[in-house]
Amino acid sequence: MSGAQADLMMADRDLQGAAGERFERILLASEGRPIPNSAVDQVIELAAPGASVFVFSIARVHGVGFGMPNPGLLPTKREWKEQHELVEQAVKRLRRKGLKAKGHVLGTRKSTKRICDEATEQGCEAIVMAADPDRARLIGDMIWSQEPQRVRRRAKLPVFLVVDEALPR
To answer: Number of H helices and number of E strands within the chain?
Structure first.
């Protein structure tokens, strides 16, 4: 990792059983941010030999207009393409490391719910996400970049957040 120091944060409930544990099925998720090498490295470290990894990214739907979906608020073709490229890059890297990997992109406004649902649908045992450092919960609940922390609070399985400490707090 090019000089950036990453560190791993987990919910307290996950610290007991997950220390040193290897997982057969892992969800590498993104709420739309680029998937850094440190997150892929974390997946490789957590994966049992022959594990399956599902890479999942959200193309953000920005909302509704007058209570109705509005095409102007949907992801653009460029945004869809960017998300597909991010997923493809992560899948290629995981496959080079000998893991079974596949992925897809989904457009939604409710990324926390969709990421948790996707982990359940895919039968995943853990979720790995890149994240910004934690903010105060009151402020954090209003910031899109705190979506990984919301996933960590909502998920019923271990969530590993990979924080790049080079980012400003």
So the answer is: 6, 8
Cα dihedral 69, 70, 71, 75, rounded to 10, equals -70
Top-level class of domain 6-164? alpha beta
Pair of tokens at residue 27: 């969800």
Prediction pTM value: 0.78
* Tens digit of pLDDT at every position of the chain (169 positions): 443 334 444 443 344 345 578 999 999 999 888 899 999 999 999 999 888 999 999 887 766 556 666 666 777 788 889 889 999 999 999 999 989 999 999 888 788 889 999 999 999 999 999 888 776 666 655 565 678 888 888 889 999 999 876 544 4
